[in-house]
Design goal:
Largest sheet: 4 strands, mixed
CATH architecture of the largest domain: 2-Layer Sandwich
Shape: rod-shaped
Number of domains: 2
Strand order of the largest sheet: 2-1-3-4
Structural class: alpha+beta
Oligomer: single chain
Low-confidence stretches: none
CATH superfamily of the largest domain: ATP synthase, E subunit, C-terminal
Helix content: over 70%
Number of strands: 4
CATH class of the largest domain: Alpha Beta
Strand content: 5-15%
Mean pLDDT: 84
Order of helices and strands: HHEHEEEH
Number of helices: 4
Length: about 200
């Protein structure tokens, strides 16, 4: 039996050596796989961090652009409100001129708009100034070397203040709102420059 025991011992020793070698190889393979996955994990982590930083940078850039655009819109709106207030103030000053100055202003408009003929259709607000305006406008036309053929209409127009000059089929809107709107379009840049310089 001694021989069988020795054979069994040798077989067990060889099996133990083989098991140890297999275990060592498995441990080595696991370590290599673990190392490879740790590298992949680290690369994925760094890539995710880099991607996140880029996205944060892009988001911050977008937010900054949006904030700048909103600020420009607010500034433009504020400037528009200031211009609106300036022209509203001008309108109120025109409408509150002393009567003689207001009539002189309306007469100068009639003189510019007319070739010497036509009919003045006043606003309801200015109806009572009709005869004085007509006299002053015809005087201004004569002073400019034009005929004094303006007439006063019995009708009124639904305008804020001022008049409509009707000459044949042609109408010239000389209402205060229309004059100011025309002036605003022509002068808005200059007024803005004075207000915001």
């Amino acid at each position: 039996m001694d021989g069988i025991e020795k054979i069994i011992e040798r077989i067990n020793a060889a099996a133990a050596e083989e098991c140890a070698a297999i275990a060592q190889k498995a441990e080595s393979d696991c370590a290599a796989i673990r190392s490879e996955y740790e590298k992949k994990l680290q690369a994925a982590y760094e890539s995710a961090i880099e991607k996140g930083e880029k996205e944060i940078g892009l988001d911050a850039e977008r937010m900054l652009r949006t904030a700048r655009l909103d600020a420009r819109k607010e500034l433009l709106l504020a400037k528009q409100n200031v211009l609106d207030t300036a022209f509203q103030t001008a309108k109120e000053k025109l409408l509150n001129l002393p009567e003689d100055q207001y009539i002189a202003w309306l007469a100068s408009l009639a003189c510019k708009a007319s070739d010497g003929s036509g009919e003045i259709i006043l606003s309801a607000r200015d109806k009572e100034l009709g005869e004085k305006l007509l006299a002053k406008a015809n005087e201004a036309l004569i002073a400019k070397g034009k005929q004094a053929g303006l007439k006063l209409s019995n009708e009124t127009r639904n305008i804020d203040a001022g008049f409509i000059l009707l000459d044949g089929r042609t109408e010239v809107n000389c209402s205060v709102s229309s004059i100011l709107e025309d002036s605003r379009q022509a002068m808005a840049a200059k007024v803005a420059e004075k207000l915001f310089d």
